[in-house]
Amino acid sequence: MRKIKPEKLKKGDLIGIISPASTPDDMSRLDRGVRYLETIGYRTELAPNVGLHRGYLAGDDEQRLHDLHYMFKKKEVKAVFCVRGGYGSPRLLDKINYTLIRKNPKIFVGYSDITALHMAFLIKTGLVTFAGPMVAVDFGKEEISSYSEEIFWRTLTNNRKLGKVVLPGEEKLFSLNKGKAKGPVVGGNLALLLSLSGTPYFPDLKGKILIIEDIGEAPYRVDRLLNQLKLMGAFRQLKGVILGSFSDCIEPDFTKRTLSLNDVIEDYFSSLSIPVMYNFPHGHIADLVTIPFGITTYMNTSKNIVELMESGVR
């Protein structure tokens, strides 16, 4: 599939806001996120069904699908931002009009549960999409990370090569295996990514750089997910692996015997013949690097470098 980059965002552009997964428990965070976008010079439009509830879903499947199609169909909308993750995006994958998406390429932003849409768009249309801040989750905070903010807007508004990732503060990248690798970057939330295995929406991993992150998964569950990747032959196909943040991935019952997250990571990655890097600032964290899925990415674990070798927009 030929790679398609959306047009870069400009001040005054209209940003469409959708909820393809869940609705925030606190709608004031959505209001704050919308105000933030408007304050810095963008126009916004909430999709017709934003704010609805159907259990853990932001409305039923048809309502959420309608909003996704509506925003990609509307010519004036230049970017589509997700309100939050939660759960629900995978339920839309076999209902989406991918021809509509391909013919109307736009900036599309979200992470966590939105991983399902990122991978489906990339596979079915070639569209480069962005794992980055969401309206209620990140832009709805009382204080927004200036690190996340700077990287995000530079990524969406700049059609030049993005270059080396600079880490926040005193943070450092660490390597498990030495080496260099270059290839298109795919991945996202580990649990969501593996939920796509065996479907037409799981990415071809051959020659790719895989970036993964997760939240709230006990070590044995991370173990299970990584073992599935291993048994699928993923580690024989990949050029390299970048491990983002695995927030709160601890055993909640302190009376249980458990491996640590580090033990699990060591078990699966330390013996691989491909470069593996960890502590990359991506995931459910305040200081977040926005990842344009599908662009060529370079990693050098000897020098602890991750470089985004092209732009995500045109």
List keywords for this structure.
314 residues, alpha/beta, Rossmann fold, Glucose Oxidase, domain 1, 8-stranded mixed β-sheet, 6-stranded mixed β-sheet, 9 helices, globular
CATH-defined topology of the largest domain = Glucose Oxidase, domain 1
CATH homology-level superfamily of the largest domain: LD-carboxypeptidase A C-terminal domain-like
Shape: globular
Number of beta-strand segments? 14
Q: Oligomer, anyone?
A: single chain
**What Rg, in angstroms, do the CA atoms define?**
19 Å
List the total number of helices: 9
The tally of domains stands at: 2
CATH C-level category of the largest domain: Alpha Beta
Main β-sheet: number of strands, strand sense, barrel status? Answer: 8 strands, mixed
Order of helices and strands: EHEHEHEHEHEEEHEHHEHEEEE
Strand content bin: 15-25%
In helices, the fraction of residues equals 25-40%
Account of the 3D structure:
- With 314 residues, the protein is of the alpha/beta class.
- The chain has two domains: 131 residues, Rossmann fold (3-Layer(aba) Sandwich), CATH 3.40.50.10740; 146 residues, LD-carboxypeptidase A C-terminal domain-like (Glucose Oxidase, domain 1).
- Helix content is 28%, strand content 22%.
- It has nine helices and 14 strands.
- Strands 6-14-13-8-9-10-11-7 form an eight-stranded mixed β-sheet. It has a six-stranded mixed β-sheet with strand order 2-1-3-4-5-12, sandwiched between helices.
- Strand 10, helix 9 and strand 11 form a beta-alpha-beta unit.
- The longest helix is centred in the N-terminal third of the chain and has 13 residues.
- The radius of gyration is 19 Å and the shape is globular.
